[in-house]
Design goal:
Layout: E1 6-7, E2 11-14, H1 20-24, H2 28-40, E3 45-51, E4 57-68, E5 71-80, H3 89-103, E6 108-114, H4 118-126, E7 130-137, E8 140-148, H5 151-154
Parallel strand pairs: 5-6
Antiparallel strand pairs: 1-2, 2-3, 3-4, 4-5, 6-8, 7-8
Length: 155
């Protein structure tokens, strides 16, 4: 389990609440699904990314269990509200989530994004995730990236 909240210089990452949907520009049904996943999977889901200065929910980030090519993977996800993009929040939140996941003992994190999602691809590479291959998931083709914690860090 990854302890929440996670704090960075500008962000607070905490469990989602249904009323976060409007601030993030997401549907209440999608946020509810993430809340239910959190409850069902021991806290593994996407969480709210909140601006510390304003208290506004600016997006989602987290890790959740996914079945990718027949393997159960802990997959990083991050979605920043359209009006809060280009502020470095995706990189800052994703980096904090990766640190917390590795600190909690998870040795490998994957991330999938669309082949044409240049901003997300740039963030994944900036975070040090390595491209592994293309994969089909839920009927769509994605670029699959992964990062493994060095063995010495696990000792």
């Amino acid at each position: 389990m990854i302890p929440l909240p996670i704090e960075t210089e500008r962000l607070l990452i905490r469990p989602l609440r249904l009323d976060d949907a409007a601030e993030m520009g997401q549907s209440r049904d999608w946020i509810q699904e993430k809340i239910e996943r959190f409850e069902r999977n021991g806290g593994m889901s996407l969480w709210a990314v909140v601006e510390r200065a304003s208290g506004r929910a600016a997006g989602l980030a987290g890790v959740q269990w996914e079945e990718i090519d027949g393997r159960r993977e802990l997959d990083l996800g991050c979605v920043i509200a359209e009006d809060r993009r280009r502020l470095g929040y995706a990189t800052e939140a994703s980096h904090a989530v990766l640190r917390a996941a590795f600190a909690a003992g998870y040795p490998r994190i994957t991330a999938m994004t669309g082949l044409d999602n240049a901003p997300a691809l740039a963030v994944l590479e900036q975070l040090g995730l390595a491209y592994e291959r293309e994969t089909t998931w839920d009927g769509r083709v994605y670029a699959l990236y992964a990062l493994e914690q060095p063995a010495e860090a696990l000792a």
